[in-house]
Write a structure and sequence with these properties.
Layout (H helix, E strand, L loop, with lengths): L2 H18 L10 E10 L6 E9 L7 E7 L3 E7 L5 E8 L3 E3 L2 E4 L1 H18 L7 E8 L3 E4 L18 E2 L7 H8 L18 H11 L1 H6 L2 E4 H10 L4 E2 H7 L19 E2 L5 H6 L7 H4 L5 E3 L11 H7 L7 E6 H9 L5 H4 L11 E6 L3 E7 L9 E5 L7 E7 L3 H9 L4 H10 L4 H16 L12 E3 L17 E3 L7 H28 L6 E5 L6 H11 L3 E4 L4 H13 L6 H8 L2 E5 L5 H32 L1
Parallel strand pairs: 3-8, 8-15, 12-14, 16-22, 22-23
Antiparallel strand pairs: 1-2, 3-4, 4-5, 6-7, 7-10, 9-10, 9-11, 13-14, 16-17, 17-19, 18-19, 20-21, 23-24
Helix pairs in contact: 3-4, 11-18, 13-16, 15-16, 16-17, 18-19
């Protein structure tokens, strides 16, 4: 054998060793023994080391899965026990819009969830055995199914796929007005009246307009509750959904607050007189079978966990614990409410600190969540809802029905939008980032002291989808003051900035109104898609005058959902314990210290408030003219 043959054989042997014995990496931390066997090569006096490893299986992590169904997509996120995101994915969902009617399909949503969950597990390199618990959150949309669990249409079209009335649907404005005229005692826990976005008006609309569907429905469910039912077969409803959207009186369960011994509770919080008075007395039949015979605190482990069928569709293990659900905004609250800087959390324990915080969940709409130990009635603001978000606390829930959707509307309906969108796409940045750059450039060019001054003669009332809080006027309309014939990109940037400011003035109005009625809010926490927009956050801080804490993890709604799974799995005894373990603060955005900034926004805020007063006068004048 010549030297070349010896060399080739030596390389072949080394290659065979490399191919069959993988390099040890960080994933093999549990290796127990390595045995060495020394062999002399036949062509050399050198010695090769052949390693035979006896490696124990990698220790499985404890991973918790959160699922969030928003208005436009279903998302899934995987978190470790410290609340750090390991992987996430989303899948779009279909939506049908026709005037005030907005509808979706539960079948389509479930398929999107299955796609998102599998993709998230792949991206996060998480095996199904590692998922120890699962939680769901969704918009407060109304789902109709028959006795077999099949969809029942809620659409004028008769399309059986469309079995969901989406939260933003305003078809039931007249029904809401009639319900509010009843002056039922339960209405004091809804800010004085139900919104057309709540379930009773929508139910009444279906009964009055789609009688065949009404007779076919076996279960009316909030979307979050339908998801847990689909996953586990357990029809137990959440205190969050029933209290916040169905007029259920959660404080009927005050004696059952011990989460450590959580159980499904007989639904004793329905006011039968209310349902009968508004014309929905048939929903009381069968111990409220169609709307919820049993309820549970969020995070309570449902049934026997995932059914084999649901587990197969999701790519998870049968029996994986599933926690009672939350509405998506409330999951955002759970995912961010304890996200305070370490310096604050490690100081003297202040049990009332959580009651001075308000969470802004900023997406298609914005929800404003504040909690208190005592019940506080705030006119025009939903609540107080007992244990609807943080156990044993009363929740006050303000909101703006169109924020992210309003910004999209303003931008997409401007003539300069297509060109601007192409520019942003070519640079692989968002259109918001590009608009922010244009505003910064305009500030430099015009010598403005700060960006906000660019809109000194443009003012917007952002009630393009009514006013949810604190005026609670679904008939309120959006208003823009200061338009010209300019159709340039710069003019679009100004419209965008003025809309952001209008939204922030609306939040200031809600905060001031809550504080005037007993709250003591002095700190804001923001999450959701809009919270990733630095200009949006800074304008809110400057306009409201409070610091805004951003969470470490951007996906706070997914984290809040995952917390439900962690509690269901018994990793944490209570939702509060899980929040403290899994929430963490990121950046803190402070309001400007420049007194000129405050003076400027105070003036614009005064104009903002006056716009609605003008609208009321205009409405009154026209009503009188038509009478």
């Amino acid at each position: 054998m010549d030297f070349k043959e010896k060399k080739d054989k030596k390389l072949d042997l080394r290659k065979s060793m490399t191919d069959t014995i993988p390099l040890l990496d960080s994933t093999h931390q549990n290796q127990s023994h390595i045995y060495y066997r020394f062999n002399s090569f036949p062509f050399s006096n050198s010695v090769a080391v052949e390693m035979t490893t006896n490696i124990l299986p990698r220790q499985l992590r404890s991973v918790f899965l959160g699922v969030d169904v928003g208005t436009g997509s279903a998302r899934a996120g995987l978190f470790n026990e410290d609340g750090k995101l390991l992987g996430s994915a989303s899948s779009p969902i279909q939506i049908w819009k026709d005037g005030d009617c907005v509808e979706q399909s539960s079948t389509d949503i479930w398929l999107a969830i299955c796609t998102a969950v599998k993709r998230a597990c792949d991206l996060g390199s998480v095996s199904k055995e590692e998922v120890k618990g699962l939680g769901f959150a969704a918009t407060c949309s109304l789902v109709a199914v028959d006795s077999e669990g099949e969809p029942v249409t809620v659409s004028w079209s008769g399309d059986t796929r469309r079995n969901i009335i989406v939260w933003m649907d305003h078809r039931a404005v007249k029904q809401a007005e009639r319900i509010n005229a009843s002056n039922s005692p339960v209405l004091q826990y809804c800010g004085g009246g139900v919104s057309p976005e709540m379930e009773p008006p929508k139910l009444l609309w279906v009964k009055e307009n789609l009688q065949e569907s009404w007779s076919m429905v076996f279960r009316w469910m909030d979307l979050s509750d339908w998801l847990t039912y689909k996953a586990t077969g357990d029809d137990t409803r959440s205190l969050c959904t029933t209290v916040c959207k169905w007029t259920y009186l959660g404080h009927a369960h005050m004696q059952q607050i011990n989460e450590k011994d959580s159980c499904a509770m007989e639904s004793c919080g329905w006011d039968d007189g209310f349902w009968e008075e508004i014309g929905l007395g048939d929903l009381v039949d069968g111990h409220h079978a169609k709307i919820g015979r049993s309820v549970a605190f969020p995070g309570h482990a449902l049934g026997s966990g995932l059914t084999p069928h649901a587990a197969k569709e999701l790519g998870l293990m049968a029996g994986t614990p599933v926690g009672t659900a939350l509405i998506d905004a409330h999951a955002g609250g759970v995912g961010v409410m304890e996200s305070v800087p370490a310096s604050d959390s490690q100081s003297i324990v202040d049990e009332d600190a959580i009651s001075r915080r308000m969470v802004l969940v900023c997406g298609t709409s914005t929800c404003h969540m504040a909690v208190s130990r005592t019940k506080l009635f705030v006119p025009g603001v939903w609540g107080p809802f007992w244990s609807a978000m943080v156990p044993d606390y009363w929740l006050t829930e303000g909101g703006q029905s169109a924020t992210g959707s309003l910004l999209d509307h303003i931008i997409e309906n401007h003539v300069a939008s297509p060109h601007l969108a192409n520019r942003a796409a070519s640079r692989r940045i968002s259109i918001f980032d590009l608009l922010n750059e244009i505003l910064e450039s305009m500030k430099q060019d015009e010598g403005s002291p700060f960006i906000a001054t660019l809109t000194n003669d443009m003012h917007i009332l952002p009630d393009f989808h009514g006013n949810r809080s604190p005026i609670a006027d679904p008939k309120s309309k959006g208003m823009i003051s200061g338009l010209t014939l300019d159709t340039s990109e710069k003019q679009l940037a100004l419209l965008y900035l003025a809309t952001v400011q209008g939204i922030a003035y609306g939040t200031r109005h809600i905060v001031e109104h809550c504080n005037a009625n007993g709250h003591k809010i002095d700190t804001l926490l923001a999450c959701g898609g809009l919270a990733k927009n630095c200009l949006f956050v800074q304008e809110h801080a400057d306009i409201i005058g409070y610091p805004i804490i951003l969470p470490r993890e951007n996906e706070s709604v997914l984290l809040g959902s995952a917390i439900l799974g962690a509690v269901a799995s018994k990793k944490y005894s209570t939702v509060c314990d899980a929040m403290k373990a899994m929430n963490a603060a990121g950046q803190v955005v402070y309001p400007s210290k420049d007194v000129k900034v405050k003076k400027y926004h105070d003036a614009k805020y005064s104009i903002f408030r006056d716009l609605y007063e003008q609208q009321q006068k205009h409405r009154s004048l026209m009503a009188e003219a038509l009478s």
